[in-house]
Amino acid sequence: MEFFLHPSTLTLVVHAIIVIAIVVRVITKRPATGVALAWLLLVSAVPFAGAVFYLLIGERRISRQRSSRIARLRTDFAKIAEIAIRDGITDVDWSTHHPAARGMSRLGQNLGGAPTVRGSEFQMFSDTQESWLGWSRTSMQQTPVC
Length: 146
Known about the structure:
mainly alpha
């Protein structure tokens, strides 16, 4: 019985309970796999301090008001995308574009939820200087609106 009341045993048990609680919390929040593994490693490897760090900066906390605004925006964006798809604006002929353009379109749709539309321009640059030149050419071609 003395073994269970030893300070190091109590510390280990408390640490294990904290780690299990945070593991459950991280799993239910479902962050990106790398983020989840990093937090779980920190919490389990650094007793107590890892848990404190997780509780301080581990989760993104937003207010209910902001959460409801985000939900409204998502609904609005979904309606806009639905109208664009219905009207055929998203029917892009991918055979006329660079092969990477379709992958970039899928990435944009998965991250932002908005499909690529016809008539938009897509240009890939290999370095900073090339991107600045492309940006300056594009901005010079546009006429100012007064």
